[in-house]
Amino acid sequence: MKRGVQWTIGAGLVVAAWLVAAVTPPEDAREAPFPVRAVIGETATGRNIQATITSVQRADRVSTEKWSADGNWLVVHLAAEAVVSEPASLSSATLTVGDRTFTASERPDSFASAPLTVGIPRSGSLAFELPPDLAEGEALLTLGLRSDPRLDSVIELPLDLATLPHPPAIALYRTDWTHP
Is residue 20 in a domain? Predict the structure, then answer.
């Protein structure tokens, strides 16, 4: 075999190996959650969760009937229900901004960990307490039924923190059954 042919075959094998490496999914892809993109005001349905995010706002103060706190808050108003089976609950509510992930605050009474029923939506609010210096950036709101969302569907809503409405104070909705 001539030297030029050997070099051509060798270069072809290197390119083929590079292509295989480029299209091979990462190791954790086998267990990754199945994202369902949401849009504010529209219903998003996953395997066993259905949610309608009605609004997302930022505020300097949040309150309930018995509690209030100042800070840098992101508030999500939503309705959600189970789709296939019970028991189910909104066990995972996270907001990812860059390389930082925040969970829904447990300080106020909120929709965090609320039980969900098949076919009967509940409504309420989630509040995320953010650091004082976090005022802008691309964020991803993720809602799921399990604290470990691997191999399950999750509802995802991309957000731009700088463009969200920012009233000075927001009252969190009481978690309750949704009325038509």
Answer: no
pLDDT per residue as tens, the chain (180 positions): 688 888 888 888 888 888 887 777 777 666 778 899 999 999 999 999 999 999 999 999 999 999 999 999 999 999 999 999 999 999 999 999 999 999 999 999 899 888 999 999 999 999 999 999 998 999 999 999 988 877 788 999 999 999 999 999 999 999 998 765
Range of the domain at 47: 30-177
CATH number of the domain within which 126 lies? 2.60.40.3880
Q: Is 70 exposed, middle or buried (0-12, 13-18, 19+ CB in 10 A)?
A: exposed
Whether residue 49 is contained in a domain is answered as yes
Q: 0.90 cut: is pTM over it?
A: no
Tracing tokens 């229900």 back to the chain, one arrives at 81
User: How many domains would you assign to the chain?
Assistant: 1
What percent of the chain is helix, strand and coil (3-state, nearest 5)?
15, 45, 40
